[in-house]
Write a structure and sequence with these properties.
Layout lengths: L1 H26 L4 E2 L2 E2 L2 E7 L8 E7 L11 E5 L2 E3 L1 E6 L4 E7 L6 E5 L18 E7 L8 H10 L2 E7 L3 E3 L10 E11 L3 E10 L2 E5 L2 E6 L8 E2 L5 E5 L2 E11 L5 E8 L9 E2 L10 E11 L8 E11 L2 E12 L3 H4 L3 E5 L5 E2 L5 E4 L3 E11 L2 E11 L26 E2 L5 H6 L2 H7 L19
């Protein structure tokens, strides 16, 4: 009996010591930088592809600590802040931000607490990559660029991310129906002076500007143009060096799409467009970082989790599908040792599995709670997660002498003729490979970016 009690005592002591050791290692971490006190810190890991990057994009859940204005989150290298841009907040507690790399080997995201002091954040100076922003649609004159610009500036932001080119079908940041604005902005780096022809096709209006001047437009409410016909291309002279690039698109419904293409030193009036290469925007200098587990100033040990949208299941006579979601625990190993995990999925259902798969009866915003009970204490984290049906790519870009893009199920823009989307697919991938292919999907993010749900 005495030996049994002694063993129990020793096990309890070991658990207590491990908790104290882990607590002290986090408590010793600084949550104060640049005169501001933060509530949470996450590390950022960079892969080999990010060594020469100028801009790093990261995604994470902030468990309710970042203000709606995004004015209490920043990235630091050591004790110094680096230029940081909040690209997207929401839905729920999702955050996507970008920061400028300064050659440091380690970076930290600091968030929560009071807003940053005035002037604390360094000015953004990087002019690499192509940024896509979308905002909620509001009434404007679809034939007037100034009206569209004003409406865009006043509209509610939806999402933003760096992408490889001007091509999208539907709003890649929004999972609910509705119209939207899109704006692509960046810098074109032209290697050789010459004549450059630009084309646009869209549903509905689109406007392409170089150095602040309108080059080509497809104003008004209309379907996308399937053929690259004479008169669609607008030619301009560009000098070698950097040129500002803007592209506005307005979709009055969720079925909108837009594609911009170009032709270098065109030889004939009949267009032969191709997608604008991502290298022209120096998109290779934008990379993705991996965000580590959170450490909180008020809670030394913190669970963490990730999710992956697996599938949706349509139901007979019901327009709303079921949504299958895989949950992955990402908590510290020391916290899991001897601990009991409990999940609350926010819809009245729970689980005690470590990596449960859960089916939601409908899409929506859910408050998900993971609790780990260890050494008689509960450690938990709560994130508001937007659950949505998975989206399949519905825009296919194939580089060929005549092909530009494939709008949603309506065929592809070609030189002098239209090929139905179904026929293009049936011809097989070998034909596309023989001509060379662009990235497929709703839009190709720079590197291997996602839409923030994993």
């Amino acid at each position: 009996m005495q030996r049994t009690n002694l063993r129990r005592c020793l096990r309890g002591l070991a658990v207590a010591v491990s908790v104290l050791v882990m607590s002290s290692s986090v408590v010793g971490q600084s949550f104060r930088r640049g005169g501001a006190q933060f509530e949470a810190v996450r590390s950022v890991a960079l892969g080999t592809e990010a060594r020469n990057a100028r801009v790093i994009v990261v995604e994470f859940w902030h468990h309710g600590l970042i203000s709606p204005k995004g004015d209490n989150v920043v990235v630091a290298a050591g004790s110094d802040f680096v230029p940081t841009r909040v690209l997207q907040l929401g839905p729920g507690d999702f955050c996507r931000l970008a920061f400028q790399a300064n050659g440091s080997s380690s970076y930290e995201i600091l968030y929560g607490g009071d807003p940053l002091p005035e002037g604390a954040l360094p000015k953004w100076t990087a002019e690499v990559g192509l940024l896509l922003e979308t905002r909620e649609y509001r009434d404007c004159n679809l034939n007037n660029l100034d009206s569209i610009r004003q409406a865009f500036n006043q509209a509610t932001p939806i999402g933003a991310d760096f992408v490889d080119g001007v091509a999208h079908a539907g709003n890649i940041f929004e999972y609910r129906p509705g119209g939207y604005f899109s704006r692509y902005s960046g810098t074109l780096y032209i290697e050789s002076a010459g004549t450059y022809g630009f084309l646009t096709t869209s549903q509905d209006a689109s406007f392409l500007l170089i150095d602040g001047k309108l080059v080509v437009a497809a104003p008004g409410r209309h379907r996308p143009e399937r053929w690259a016909k004479p008169g669609m291309r607008k030619d301009i002279q560009l000098t070698a060096g950097p040129h500002t690039f803007e592209y506005y698109h307005v979709a009055t419904t969720q079925e909108g799409m837009a594609v911009a293409a170009w032709e270098v030193n065109p030889k004939a009036a009949k267009p032969a467009p191709v997608a604008i290469p991502k290298e022209v925007f120096r998109a290779h200098l934008v990379a993705r970082g991996t965000v580590g587990r959170p450490a909180l100033a008020k809670q030394s040990l913190v669970p963490d989790f990730r999710i992956k949208i697996l599938c949706d299941v349509p139901l007979p006579d019901n327009p709303t599908p079921l949504v299958g979601v895989q949950f992955y625990d990402n908590s510290p190993t020391g916290l899991l040792a001897g601990g009991k995990v409990t999940w609350d999925f926010g819809d009245g259902q729970t689980s005690s599995e470590l990596t449960p798969m859960h089916v939601y009866l409908k899409p929506g915003l859910y408050t998900v709670r993971e609790t780990i009970r260890r050494a008689g204490r509960d450690f938990e984290i709560v994130n508001r997660v937007y659950v949505h049906p998975p989206r399949l790519g519905n825009i296919r870009l194939v580089e060929a002498r005549s092909v530009v893009a494939s709008p949603t199920g309506r065929g592809i823009l070609v030189q002098g003729g239209s090929i139905p989307a179904s026929a293009e697919a049936e011809r097989g991938r070998s034909d596309a490979r023989s001509r060379g292919s662009f990235p497929e999907g709703r839009n190709a993010r720079t590197k291997s970016g996602t839409r923030g749900k994993s």
